[in-house]
Design brief:
This protein is 39% helix and 20% strand. It has 13 helices and 13 strands. β2 (34-37), α2 (41-51) and β3 (54-55) form a beta-alpha-beta unit. α4 (79-88) packs parallel to α5 (103-113) and α8 packs across α12 (307-326). The longest helix is centred in the last third of the chain and has 20 residues, at 307-326. It is globular, with a radius of gyration of 20 Å.
């Protein structure tokens, strides 16, 4: 946790996640001032008023506010410009994933900022969830023995709107990338090969966008560990995000709690209410993530999730998409080359 106050944190984007970030920042005792902006100026002004934050009518006004740090929660297309503009101005950056809409854009941003000492943190909030941190600790401590299998799931209760799907980059890049990042993070290993299958049995607009609504992925890690990732836009019971790490001496599981959307056969439902979405499931993790960013701003912490980390997860997502389309296993080195 940072030990001194920062003068000003700017935030671009006041949609769902941006508003949550604004609430977090204004509540942090280490942040003196929060300045908000959004293309929807009425919305940004309303959020700023409700939270006691300051309002900037546009990006130029935001950057003119003598920022100590910038949080980017805008649409993906704007991420590259905002990241590079902030870094060029010497302003530490937190940006929601992804760095850019595609691999080429991600590489271009990294090339632009690679010689800068200005820290950039990319938003993969699962790294700040207590459960995932405990699994990482169990693996690194050797308590599980030889890790042989990792199982990860991201199951959304319903698909986002058609206009979002059309610009999302696809199920692997938009959704599965969180699993690819967290598998790398908890195991400390790299993904070297993938085999991915996809299916469409839901809304036609998903297939029309060239995407799939459900996918099954097998990953081979560089030490031989196997990992599986299950993804869907249609998990009617609720928002189900879990990870199981299975070893020769034990196992560790995250995501199974009193409100996980699980319905054991023969036992009846264990709860009358289940998680409905990612904001609810990961609210505490998002708060920890922003608190860590403030520590990055004050120089007390190195970026806990760099653009290079995001690039590695992006490589895996790209390999999965190629595997799905080509109908074969793909080595991640094919994407790197």
């Amino acid at each position: 946790m940072p030990s001194r106050r920062t003068s000003t944190i700017g935030l671009a984007g006041t949609g769902r996640i941006g508003t949550l970030h604004a609430e977090t920042l204004t509540a942090l005792p280490t942040v003196a001032t929060v300045v908000l902006t959004d293309a929807d100026t009425d919305r940004a002004h309303t959020v700023a008023t409700d939270l006691g934050a300051e309002f900037a009518p546009d990006l130029d006004a935001l950057f003119a506010a003598d920022l100590d740090g910038l949080v980017i929660a805008t649409g993906t297309d704007s991420h590259p410009e905002l990241i590079t503009r902030a870094v060029d101005a010497g302003i530490p950056v937190f940006c929601e994933k992804p760095v850019a809409a595609d691999l080429a854009g991600t590489l271009a941003v990294i090339e632009h900022i690679e010689n800068s000492s200005v820290p950039v943190q990319i938003g993969f909030q699962r790294r700040f969830d207590a459960g995932y941190r405990a699994v990482r600790g169990a693996i690194s401590s050797g308590r599980l023995g030889r890790l042989h299998t990792v199982r990860a799931t991201t199951l959304d209760p319903a698909p986002p709107p058609a206009e979002y799907i059309a610009r999302s980059g696809g199920l692997f890049r938009d959704c599965g990338v969180h699993d690819f990042d967290i598998i790398r993070w908890v195991t400390g290993r790299e993904v070297v090969e993938v085999c991915a299958l996809g299916a469409n049995r839901g809304e036609e607009f998903i297939a029309e966008a060239g995407d799939v609504d459900t996918a099954a992925v097998v990953l081979r890690l560089d030490d031989g560990t196997l990992a599986t990732v299950s993804l869907t836009r249609y998990n009617g019971t609720g928002y189900d995000v879990r990870l199981e790490a299975l070893g020769s001496e034990g196992n560790a599981v995250v995501g199974v709690d009193g409100v996980a959307p699980l319905d054991p056969v023969g036992a009846g439902r264990t709860a009358s209410y289940f998680y409905t979405g990612f904001l609810e499931r990961f609210r505490s993790a998002y708060a920890e993530e922003l608190s860590a960013f403030v520590a990055v701003v004050t120089g007390e912490l190195d970026s806990p999730c760099s653009p290079i980390d995001a690039l590695e997860a992006c490589y895996v997502a790209e390999a999965c998409e190629l595997s799905r389309r080509a109908g074969r296993a793909v080595e991640v080195s094919e994407i790197r080359d």
